[in-house]
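Mods, move this if it's the wrong board.
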Amino acid sequence: MNLLAKKVSFFDSLPSIKIKEQDLSIIESTANYKAKMLALIKSAKKRIYITTLYLQDDEAGQEILSAIYQAKQKNPELEVKLFVDFLRAQRGLMGFAKSEGNVLLYREMHAKYKHTIPIYGVPVKSKEFLGVLHLKGFVFDDTVLYSGSSINNIYLQQFERYRYDRYHLIKSKLLSDAFVNFLTQNFVNNAAVKLLTKYDVASIKSLKNDVRRMKLELRKTDYAIQAISSQKSDQDILLTPLLGFGGRRNNLNKAIVELIRGSKKKVVIFTPYFNFPSKVNRSVRKLLKQGKKVTIVVGDKTANDFYIPEDQPFNKAGILPYIYETSLKRFLRANQKYVDKGVLDVYLWLDHGNSFHLKGISSDQSNYLITGHNINPRAWRLDIENGILIQDKSQQLKAKFDSELSQVMKHCTRINHFEDIDTPETYRPEAQKLLKRVKMSKLDSLLNRLL
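Not the wrong board. Structure tokens:
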């Protein structure tokens, strides 16, 4: 045994797929994202696989699902499968009247067309707040369209308002196959996963044992890819799809930490819900102490998708933007000296009336993570997450990612001091009251794990 042998890094140990620079493109606007999705649906010849938290029964959801059904009618041989969260699909919107949810749309479309499409409900926990299906990625033939967005009016900018996300298009048969094979092997014939197009869907309570078995299997699995056979070169662009679901064996969580920890000069982190897991927080602090540049881009509390304008009735879910803002203020207070030195930049994104949903990491403009992972404790422990690690040592993709960042920064303002952040005393009365109740009942630590 050679004790002097060079230790293989975590990234080098991962199986990977080679792509060329022209195989990856970035869509920089929400409106163009929807247009591209519709074009890919129309042009698909072999397969369409959609995985999302939800496909909403609204104008945008109906338009996308109708387009998929029309593609299937024109080409009955087209392989189409949709996967959504089991519980999320069977409820209405938060703060609105109780309803049966999006399954009504699914069943209506199923009855309307000759060539039907399976829509699978994937359960993760007995209660939605304890974990959901948060896998992302749409496959159209041999192309992956990856975004953290779900499918509804605001995510697709059906009207004027939009929820800003990141949108990446990757042409790769191997990556597409990896996404499709994972879904097929883990969900299609799984006893815990049910077709939502049927009216007699089993209750989550009756699926308890099946869900437990599925979770145990998922914690032991990952994306299987046909890795490159030739030796890796610094001139290669390498992709690795990663799964993240609780437990210690979670390559997605490991990649997040390693991307931050391994940054030599600078790292950029996007998150819509500021509440770093402890490992991420420690890794960021370590970089700052070393004098390396850390940039964090987060949405203003009014750009949080849970924010309720002050002229609208308040409900309990509306407390979330205020909790995330207090978390951000706490972080800034603890790291103010690095803000003063110019080592730490925290930017708030705000485009009035619109919301912010970006997530991911850029390290040294050569390693990137595109993901639906919110980089918070909930994503770290509870939800089923995924992402795509991109290693680009020769920086062939730098111009594309720099352009994406420039677009994001158009609506950003740097926070120069933690006192620039609002204090609870300025919050709407209902939010102040609920925050006090949370602190008095000592629920802070529990909420931290769930948010």
